[in-house]
Amino acid sequence: PTPVLLDCDPGHDDAVAILLALGSPSLRLLGITTCFGNCAVEDATRNAQRVLALAGREDVPVAVGAAGPMRGEVALGNYVHGVSGLDGPALPEPTVAPVHETATELLARCLIDSPEPVTVVVTGPMTNLGVLLSEEPGLTEHIREVIFMGGSTERGNHTPTAEFNTFADPEALDVVLSTGVPVRMVGLNLTHQALATPAVVERMSAMPHLVGRTCAEWMGFFGDSYERIWEFEAPPVHDPCTIAPLLDPDVIRWRDCFVAVELDGTWTRGTTVVDLFGRLPDRTPNAAVAMELDAERYWDLILTALDRLGSP
Ligand code: BDR
Ligand code: CA
Questions:
Q1: Residue 228 burial by CB count (10 A; 0-12/13-18/19+): exposed, middle or buried?
Q2: ipTM rounded to 2 decimals
Q3: Overall pTM > 0.95
């Protein structure tokens, strides 16, 4: 199986990403590290642990990460995910504590100990990885690729132009891009194709187990937020779009592009700049950018994984 580290801020869609990784035998989840983002880092940590408890997989180590960004103010997404960061159905309480290592310590140790390079998936602000690689740039040798949810080739969501994760810590993304490590970016232009339609939610709630029904209820809460704030008819389930291409290379179509992130704009801090048409001739592509999702395959991957977890 492909060794994977997941750095996240659960979050309803992060929670589904965790379940997709756990329910996919071709991946081996080495650990989960948490970050501020959808909620304070303490809540993100507890939410990650509650999701592991729901899946019966508390053997996966969880390490507490950054409480705020490399520079600037803390931005939180509770206005989307509720006070706990994962509001909605009741969840089992964790029975295992987080590990004593910090997120960067756990990431570094797992990277060094792995016999093969590790895929690092980031579905929250990039802080933990940005801090780690600015301190220990040599660790990129142990990383197969970084695949992250953030940014967009188009508009934003947290601000008119900036997506939440890249807004929350643009300096950290800038560090990661500047290391030259292979990067795949999954932005809003892609994840807005990953809608949990009523038909998808119905398939979840019809599952004869708590894992499926819990996801259906999460989609209800998340969907209400998306309708209220952004007038979406169904919620875009962003974060599992980083895991799905590790399972099926054809689920997303990519384009190699130069990507940068705005650090200083008056209105545009945290906005990703994606050179789709090679308008910056002295810049070469530094990332594969997700362009098109096969939504049917995507939901099949997720529902299959949920069923594996729910009916072992
Ligand atoms: C991203 O921000 C969070 O609300 C989601 O979990 C996702 O990672 C979408 O902009
Ligand atoms: Ca997230």
A1: exposed
A2: 0.99
A3: yes
